């Protein structure tokens, strides 16, 4: 409710009733406090010794996870500044897949450090400029620290995948899962000159509760959440020739309404025979190509199913378009939209197509594809909650392996790069003139919040750990970090704890951008939703218009209608 007095002493109302405005220092304090709370929520979930959060939504569905992006997505944040931190977690997850918790912790630390500068009357714009310069310096430092690896080097990729999984529930099964993840990414990766690109949509992740995590497997092909359409069809085909059809094996209804007059039983019989013949012609076209397996995106008529079963063709219908695309990549088949175009060269190949029962469900497995560009990870676990968390862990691992293949540079884990960058920024900050120097030093301090959180979650003394890290790094051992599982400071290279450079760069970029955006806000204007018509106002009329004008209550105000009778 911003009210401004004019010369004539008439108030000028700018905002709707019920609106609120927070200005200047109060607005900044409010926003920073909200961001700090968000960072505090996820802080305890950082690292291998981090704790999990149990999240219960409005419907009573339970999620148990320590994945930063999932936590922030599920808690349904309302505060506008806090929502920005949720956004950076989402963007980090989409971009690089890992480091979401670190990004939020760093953003929270940057704002907390900025708060002390604001109290010293340092202008927000100066802080923002200092932070931006320090963020660029941090990325340069990490580039100097990083080690180049061969993009398709399996041993390096395994280390990356395992490090990502060390922080998750699946830690004890990380060897097997990491191996599955690396194989799947290598299968889906496409080489373009010296560079690799990998579309993670080509890696299908199927999850099924039951058994244990160690029962998970990789299928060199596709698993379909469907079953064979007809009981008379074979349930297993070896050396299969696969047809992928994007059209219905049914008699299509006409677009315009049509009526057929049938007066005798013979006419009825010939009509049905004609329908059957049309369906048989469709099926014959498919069988004529030599296909032994048919995957159809649309429906298949009962009569067509009968003819396909008679010919011993394994058929699955109503397959999702995304699955059909994956099948095409896995089996090298071509998706056909018109049956007349189907020929033998359009068929794909797989060693085995089989319907299997997993727990109480039936699924169709397409295995043994020669050069599959699309593979399936079948994840198992004791309960739905656990298998969901396994899926999140596998997603993060797939993303970090993809990152390293596309940008083959790695840095140490365990807070080592953050300490290294912080030391470099402190030395460089002295060269800055003016108050930006203070902001750069605060940036370095904020970077150290990540190793501090790691050591706290591991039950180590944070101050001792930090001083030990600094001294070892100053002696030249720049790959020294915190081995959380052993609760000691050691060389990360020998411990095989490594992370992609791309992830670290994304964490610094996302956190500094979010912090700078929040710092530049000095006015928060919140408007409320319209409350609707006041009580008593009929049909949404403005107040005072609920009744008729004076003199019109009844028909007295109407012209004399006697002459019209």
Structure, explained:
With 565 residues, this protein is of the alpha+beta class. The protein folds into 3 domains: 23-148 and 411-519, GROEL, domain 1 (Orthogonal Bundle); 154-219 and 386-407, GROEL, domain 2 (2-Layer Sandwich), CATH 3.30.260.10; 222-371, GroEL. It has 16 helices and 23 strands. The longest helix has 24 residues, at 265-288. It is elongated.
List the defining traits of the structure above.
565 residues, alpha+beta, GROEL, domain 1, GROEL, domain 2, GroEL, 3 domains, disordered C terminus
Short note summarizing the structure:
This protein has helices at residues 24-43, 68-74, 80-95, 100-119, 124-145, 154-166, 174-188, 265-288, 302-310, 321-331, 384-406, 416-429, 436-447, 449-457, 462-474, 501-519, and strands at 3-5, 11-13, 20-23, 53-56, 62-65, 147-148, 189-192, 195-198, 203-209, 217-219, 222-224, 236-245, 293-296, 314-316, 335-336, 348-358, 361-367, 375-381, 409-412, 480-483, 488-491, 498-500, 523-526.
């Amino acid at each position: 409710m911003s009210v401004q007095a004019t010369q004539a002493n008439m108030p000028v109302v700018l905002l709707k009733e019920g609106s609120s405005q927070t200005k200047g220092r109060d607005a900044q304090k409010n926003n920073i406090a909200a961001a700090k709370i968000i960072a505090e929520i996820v802080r305890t979930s950082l690292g291998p010794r981090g704790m999990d959060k149990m999240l219960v939504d409005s419907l009573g569905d339970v999620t148990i996870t320590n994945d930063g992006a999932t936590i922030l997505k599920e808690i349904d944040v309302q505060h506008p500044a806090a929502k920005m931190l949720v956004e950076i977690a989402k963007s980090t997850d989409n971009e690089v897949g890992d480091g979401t918790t670190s990004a939020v912790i760093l953003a929270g630390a940057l704002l907390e450090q900025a708060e002390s500068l604001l109290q010293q009357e340092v202008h927000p714009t100066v802080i923002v400029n200092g932070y931006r310069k320090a963020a660029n310096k941090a990325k340069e430092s990490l580039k100097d620290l990083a080690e180049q690896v061969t993009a398709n080097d399996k041993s390096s990729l395994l280390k990356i995948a395992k490090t990502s999984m060390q922080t998750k529930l699946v830690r004890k099964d990380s060897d097997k899962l990491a191996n599955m993840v690396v194989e799947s990414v290598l299968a889906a990766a496409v080489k373009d000159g010296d560079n690799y690109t990998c579309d993670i949509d080509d890696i299908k992740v199927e999850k099924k509760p039951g058994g244990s995590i160690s029962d998970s497997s990789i299928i060199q092909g596709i698993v379909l959440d469907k079953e064979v359409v007809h009981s008379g069809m074979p349930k297993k085909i070896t050396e299969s020739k696969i047809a992928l059809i994007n059209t219905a094996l049914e008699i299509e209804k006409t677009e315009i309404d049509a009526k057929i007059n049938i007066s005798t039983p013979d006419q009825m019989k010939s009509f049905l025979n004609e329908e059957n013949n049309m369906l048989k012609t469709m099926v014959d076209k498919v069988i004529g190509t030599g296909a032994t397996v048919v995957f159809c995106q649309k429906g298949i008529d009962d009569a067509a199913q009968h003819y396909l079963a008679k010919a011993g063709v394994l058929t699955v219908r109503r397959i999702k378009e995304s699955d059909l695309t994956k099948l095409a990549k896995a089996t090298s088949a071509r998706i056909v939209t018109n049956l007349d175009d189907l020929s033998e060269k359009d068929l794909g190949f797989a060693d085995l197509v089989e319907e299997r029962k997993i727990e109480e469900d039936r699924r169709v497995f397409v295995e043994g594809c020669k050069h599959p560009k699309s593979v399936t990870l079948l994840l198992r676990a004791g309960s739905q909650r656990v298998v969901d968390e396994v899926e999140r862990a596998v997603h993060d691992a797939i993303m970090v392996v993809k990152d390293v293949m596309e940008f083959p540079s790695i840095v140490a884990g365990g807070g080592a790069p953050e300490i290294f960058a912080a030391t470099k920024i402190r030395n460089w900050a002295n060269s800055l003139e003016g108050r930006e120097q203070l902001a750069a030093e605060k940036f370095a301090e904020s970077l150290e919040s990540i190793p501090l959180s790691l050591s706290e979650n591991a039950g180590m003394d944070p101050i001792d750990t930090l001083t030990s890290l600094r001294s070892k790094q100053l002696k030249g051992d720049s790959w020294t970090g915190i081995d959380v599982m052993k609760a000691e400071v050691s060389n990360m290279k020998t411990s095989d704890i490594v992370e992609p450079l791309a992830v670290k760069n994304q964490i610094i970029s996302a956190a500094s951008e979010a912090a700078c955006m929040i710092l530049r806000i000095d006015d928060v204007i919140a408007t409320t939703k319209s409350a609707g018509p006041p009580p008593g106002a009929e049909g949404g009329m403005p107040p005072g218009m609920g009744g008729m004008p004076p003199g019109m209550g009844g028909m007295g105000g109407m012209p004399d209608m006697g002459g019209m009778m």
